[in-house]
Amino acid sequence: VRRPNSESPAERTDEDEFALVEYLRERFAGPPALAPGDLGIGDDAAAVTPAHPGPVLLATDLVVEGVHVDRAVSSPEDIGWKALMVAVSDLAAMGADASHALLSVAAPPGFPVARLADGVAEAAAACGCTVVGGDLSGSPVLVVSVTAVGSAPGDAPLLRRDGARPGDVLVVTGPLGRSAAGMRLLGGPSTPGTGGEDPVPPELATAHRRPVARLAEGRAARRVGAEASDVGLELTVGEDAVAAGATRDEALGGGEDYELVLATGDPDALAAAFAAAGLRPPIRIGTCTDHPGAFTLDGGPLPQEGWRHRF
Amino acid sequence: VRRPNSESPAERTDEDEFALVEYLRERFAGPPALAPGDLGIGDDAAAVTPAHPGPVLLATDLVVEGVHVDRAVSSPEDIGWKALMVAVSDLAAMGADASHALLSVAAPPGFPVARLADGVAEAAAACGCTVVGGDLSGSPVLVVSVTAVGSAPGDAPLLRRDGARPGDVLVVTGPLGRSAAGMRLLGGPSTPGTGGEDPVPPELATAHRRPVARLAEGRAARRVGAEASDVGLELTVGEDAVAAGATRDEALGGGEDYELVLATGDPDALAAAFAAAGLRPPIRIGTCTDHPGAFTLDGGPLPQEGWRHRF
């Protein structure tokens, strides 16, 4: 597949756009390939068969330049990767799989959409999902919209935000703050153009540029009946929940780690399920209370950052 | 449902955003209501059951201020209506219904997102579909992304772009150019602030501001085996295909009418199916040839405008 010259600073022509759509069609052909009879890019709408019977899971996320990503820190491929993973992460949080995705890109003239699509395709392959359609437009600023489509294996109920009970133990699937720390270090003055050794720990840089949706963790949590949480929370975030290289503020307020926060009445069963699935042990960060909306941290008030309202 | 004060020119606060999400949750509660057991706004992902068994139909469209809509001509409600209808129109073009939708809005500070959502909700109710999720972000320019989710009733194959055969008659489901003529007249110097009688024919203004997806036409066409077209086309666009008040150039190049273009080997059967469904008669605009990609208009070359590449 030859990539169209989408880095030209000139306004994109109709011919360029036709070449780009052809590139996307081939780039998103798989793997994974579509099921026989399903329709991907090329018709007015896609027609797909999710992997599992039952309800269709849908989640959509925006990635906006200057709000969610900084082109000085993330390459076009990184931005594409992240846009796909953020949407898939919402399915992971329900304990579901992603099977298909739609990608829309509103981009300024000359923005290398094909390179962004390469990152989307890499992330989709990593998640086992296929990009089956989308839309392109010009725009003064880069806005990427990804819709992830999936389904849930087995009969266990989906992980719900309203399922946690007072007394449940709250855990997180990995140490927090890696993305925020990575952004801080990547954006620091010593990084660009030094030609020398990159001072940013690769794990932090990767956590920021290429976050990974916790699909296996969501599946394991769903099998043992954990829940996402919408009750009151007494947080006691210990050192084990703060990523190496991240500050405590970054861990509490960074918000872009895409680790799952889970509530469970049986943390030992959850830990056993994670171990059986070859996953890192969940990290305890607090307890659910019977005061919905009331959050404390080490007994005091919680900082406001990082609490993103979604609908 | 009290609408949050989203027209404030100041930067939106966390509290504003919480109120907005609450407003959206109530505004999109239906009708139509979700099926029992389905999950709409409030969890990380939606879980929905499409209306009909078989493949899940997916389409997504971007509406970008300054590219697809002009706020001097379209209200926030109009923009929301159009964003929903454009995505649903892609399902109509396959002969499918829309049952659910996702709405993402990247908006500048002070943009009345709640009013845009009102238009989305009106359009969704008109299409029989429910908004089950979405995302919100700040952005220097308004970008609206809607994903429509649906399914197709009955066993007839989906309308495909590659299904047309040479010799098929090409029809369109309504006269063309209404949206372009409406935009021209609404944007004209005599319109804003005159206080007098609106000089724009209401049908043209409505066609531009509130286009309607041709769902019933798509269903009827699918039942009789019409097809969308990807073969060569010999167009002979007569006066009956040009909307009253629109120029021929607007009919040929306007591109935002959302009328369906259908190819059929049996135009009489198609006309009979439309009549039986209470729809306007399809309008002949040409014939399919065996020269893929070759388009002629009245024997000559076709103007380039209005051919939008999608993937």
Describe this structure in words.
The structure is a homodimer of 311-residue chains. With 311 residues, chain A is α+β, with helices and mostly antiparallel strands. Chain A contains eight helices and eleven strands. A six-stranded mixed β-sheet of chain A has the order 8-6-9-7-10-11, with no helix packed on it. In chain A, strands 2-5-3-4 form a four-stranded mixed β-sheet, with helices on one face. In chain A, a hairpin with a 2-residue loop joins strand 10 and strand 11. In chain A, helix 2 (76-92) runs parallel beside helix 3 (113-127) and helix 2 runs parallel beside helix 6. Chain A starts with 13 loop residues before the first helix and ends in a 10-residue tail after the last strand. Residues 6-10 and 305-309 of chain A have low confidence and may be disordered. Strand 1 of chain A pairs antiparallel with strand 2 (56-64) of chain B.
